[in-house]
Each structure stands twice: as structure tokens, then as C-alpha cells.
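Sample A.
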Amino acid sequence: MHEPLISIVLDKHQLVHQPGEMLRGEYQIDAIDPAEIRAVELSVLWYTEGKGEEDLSVHYFERLTADEHTVGGGLHELRRFQTELPNSPLSYEGLLVKIRWCVRLRIFLRSGREYIGERSFQLGEVPYAQSVAAISPAALSNPS
């Protein structure tokens, strides 16, 4: 059996999305017999990376099972999704912790195998963190 091909495309072909904006997109699963699929889960979520415990929170979730007529041959066609993005947490590239947003598609097969596809995006525009060592001494003595 081949690995399924997972395609996730966001309508706006841009990396940065704003709070309150509608995130719209579509996904498609190919290169696998639809009868092999037990369930599909689509999530829009954020997670942290870096020092300390990692956090994860799901903003939007949709599950389709083989019992539903929506799973099967229809997965080889484009399936649409949309959700209004929240006000927080915003994407963040800190020195110790990072907050990342993504659309994640999980495929559960009848064999027990699982496959995951992700499409990352940025929520908001928080400036990158800088190390104090990277800031010039003049900027530290004259904050303006």
C-alpha cells in the first residue's frame, strides 16, 4: 500500500492572516483506496515549541467517519473548510518559546495506520524577539 497524498490549500496564498479573518481552504486525499479510510480529522490549531512543557489547543475541529456517507469516494474530490480566526494567541517567534498555527489533517486507516498533513500559517504580526546581546549598547542607553 502507498502512503496517501494529502493536499491542504488555503484560499489566500499568503502566510499571514489576521485575527477575526475567515480562514478558508480545501483539502484532498489521493493515492489511496477510499475503502481503506476509517476516519478523517481536520483541525485548525496552535501549539508551542521551546523550553518548558509544550501546549496545544484546537480552535476548529471536524471529524468524518466511514459510517458517514461523506467519507469514501468524496475524499478524492476537494473538500472545503472555513473558520473565523480568534484574537489570540498570536503567532510568536520568541527566543525561548514559539507559538505556531497550522491546519492539520489526520487520516486513520482500517489497518490502524495514521497519516498527518499540515499547512502552517501565521496569525497576526508580532515582531520577532531579539536577544539582549543582539541589541546595540546605544539602543539600550537611549530607548526612544
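Sample B, a different protein:
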Amino acid sequence: SEFLLTPRDVIVPYQPILNEATGTLDGSLFFTITPHFKVGLQGANLTNEVTKTRAIISDDLKTAPRGFYVSDRRYTLGLRWTFD
């Protein structure tokens, strides 16, 4: 859901900044090779969501676009080894 990112931005005129509602899809899949060894693939932000912020520009809480940020998709190959 939408939330207040900062009550006063660092850029003049120091307006409050809101982070718009957003969400990401992350996932992981691991395979057990032996009882002590696993191999897996993890993905973050699979839908490549854009984070959008808005500035409050008036006393009656009207807003204007402020920034758009993309974190990009990330994939990780993982190896897990456990010791007894």
C-alpha cells in the first residue's frame, strides 16, 4: 500500500514524498542432490516492477509524480552444503 517515504524531501521546496503502492514477485527453487547438498535458483522482482514516488504539492494534499525507479530482475544460483 501507499506510505509516507519522508516528511521533508532533501530537494527544495522540501515537500513530503509518498511511495505508491507496489509489489514484487520473488521465488526460489531448490533441488536436493544428496542429504547434505542442495542446488537452487532464486529470482527477485520477477515481474520487473517499477517503484513510483509522488510529492505532495499543496496544502489540500494534491500530488505530482516525483520519481520512477527500477530495481531490475535478479537471479541467483545457490549451493547449500550441510555438515553433521
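Observation for Sample B: DSSP finds no helices and seven strands in the chain.
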